[in-house]
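Final report, Chapter 2: Outcomes

The project's central promise was a pipeline that accepts a single protein chain and returns its three-dimensional structure in a standardized token representation, suitable for archiving and comparison. That pipeline is now operational. To close this chapter, we reproduce one record exactly as it appears in the project archive, with the input sequence first and the structure output second.
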Amino acid sequence: MSPRAGQAGHPARTLAFVESPVQLLNVLEWAHLHGLHDPGPSGPAEPSGADAGGAGAATASVPPPALPTQPGPAHIGPAHADHAHGGSAHGGSAHAGPVPVVPAQGRRLPAGVAAAGAVAGGTAAGGAELTVVVLSPTDPMTRGQLRRMADLARDEGYRVRWEEARGGTTAPFHTIGGLAGSLRRADRIVMGDPFSRYVQLLLTITRARDLVVVDDGTATMEFVAQLARGERLVRWHRKGGRPGARDLLFAPVSSSARRRLTPSDRRRVEVFSSMPVTEIPDGVTVTANDFAWTRARFGPPRITQSADLVGTSLVETGVVDGDRYLEAVRNLAKAHGATRYFAHRRESAEKLHRLAAETGLEIVRPDLPLELIARRGPIGRTILSFPSTVVHTLPLALAGTGVRVAVCDIDPTWLTDTASPRAQGFLSGVTGTARDVHRLAAVSPA
């Protein structure tokens, strides 16, 4: 899809909506590929918190990143699992590990723009503009990673607008009201989570002719498949359950979003993904994400001789039993000599405390998406993972480094009684379609 999506006479105006650090990372990858940058002084002014359609404190510029002196993942010893941003949940001391600092960057243009020599007043040769809108969640770990990613986005020269979209009962009204004008003016909407009710509601306002879905992990595979089959948009781990009252109330908005995400003579749809996409809906353009920005911006990493283990939030989403998961982590770490456990941002502090106490692993709560942490290094020569997005993204981000990514299947006996009937098949598909990874059999009790 060409970045020249605007009407004649004005630059293409792009709004990107993100709710997680991984989504923002993939917006940066997409923008890097398409040569977009920020509106600059000639672009449309974004309202501040005081004048954003009555948004008040719900709309503001990106808050201070609140970074430690040496930014990097918080490393907590086996007795202390970090609760938020480098602090111990039980009073233990947390310290930044021996990782390189994210280099401070001045204002920088994406690849190809500077070489073209056609930048005037903040508008690229293709006339493309990008504003990233962060619909901030309430989870402290996610918010912390989003602040770091927002800082990187600004370093790359993009405009970032931070919305306290969930900061109270009136916050959604303030957020939507403050964004309505920008939504109507936008020529292109980029979104990281088409399943998000927030995003689906915003889609009912926009008149944009170009819609782009960037990776939100394994959910992207399910989104494309559901769109191809004309099904309602439901997250894979909830599929098969009976719709709740809120689902029924929101059904008209969800149906409208699905129609808008279906290509037509009036609307183009692009999916930007590193995931395997097999069921491609008619008219949808699929663009490969090979993490070119990540590889150009970070690394190569220092490689250690040990193994690292990547955590998953499958327990928190009700798919995998907590006791079975702990047993699997313990056996996997013992079998492969893993010493560190990179926690998923949604993993609970209680579970991580138990993992640290019962496995002896060093719990690491990264302050950036794992693709960036791994690319920065140091990182183990072998990275062990359960079925998740990283078995697809890490081989791309670490291409040429010699790091081996190994994935362990989820044994059907680990699933909870309430897990979706599709859970096992979906997770097996995530593993089976991964490229450049070593497959491990499900670990069994010692």
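Archive annotation: Residues 140-155 form the longest helix (16 residues).
This record, like all others produced under the grant, will remain available to the consortium after the project formally closes.
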